[in-house]
Amino acid sequence: MSLKNKVVYITGGTKGIGLGMAKVLLDAGMRVAISGRNAETAQSAAQELGDTSKVLGLASDVSKLADEEAAVAKILETFGQLDVVLANAGVGHFAPIDQLTEEAWHQMIDTNLNGAFHTLKASVEALKVSGGYYITIASLAGTNFFASAAGYNASKFGVVGFTQAAMLDLRQYDIKVSTIMPGSVSSNFNNHVPSESDAWKIQPEDIGQIVLDLLKMNPRTLPSKIEVRPTRPDKK
């Protein structure tokens, strides 16, 4: 399958995993649209990626369906098609359940889970036209619960279930749907600043390579749920 000039939309694409995926897919010949909540940050990240004829930076808050509808409309206006959607935007707040605030709970559900729904809802008709691919970036926390992560676990368990059910609904339109569930990634997630000490972790471009492999998979075969973790965890 040739990816040259195919169009991918990546939410949460201004840094971390999203930006890493964008770089890999741009290098593979795709045209790339990235979004973040801040217009200036989105434009800056788009400029960092390089070729302005193949990169579009957009402001969109995935917790708002109208924002995602506007983003997809702009992509179609600019590139004329939409072939791949990567629902990557996510946030995490970690605290024991008796200390987790209502605000933190709603932000995770609204961004991680509702955001995945809004992104698909806004793009599904375009994906029907292209026979495209919708991929969520979930987490190993979507099947493995741990202390001080009730809200994050709830959102990511939801993303995994949502994606798997959407896969069953959309394959009749020749739309492929998968979820990627990374473990520890060297990224800016939860205000982390990547450093040399993160060398043992999954790197953002590694997730981009997984996406690339999925897109090149024979269309008769669908890896619908992919767990990925560091080969050798850091020794503590």
TrEMBL record:
<dbReference type="InterPro" id="IPR050259">
    <property type="entry name" value="SDR"/>
</dbReference>
<protein>
    <submittedName>
        <fullName>Short-chain dehydrogenase</fullName>
    </submittedName>
</protein>
<comment type="similarity">
    <text>Belongs to the short-chain dehydrogenases/reductases (SDR) family.</text>
</comment>
<dbReference type="Pfam" id="PF00106">
    <property type="entry name" value="adh_short"/>
</dbReference>
<dbReference type="InterPro" id="IPR036291">
    <property type="entry name" value="NAD(P)-bd_dom_sf"/>
</dbReference>
<dbReference type="InterPro" id="IPR020904">
    <property type="entry name" value="Sc_DH/Rdtase_CS"/>
</dbReference>
<dbReference type="InterPro" id="IPR002347">
    <property type="entry name" value="SDR_fam"/>
</dbReference>
<dbReference type="GO" id="GO:0032787">
    <property type="term" value="P:monocarboxylic acid metabolic process"/>
</dbReference>
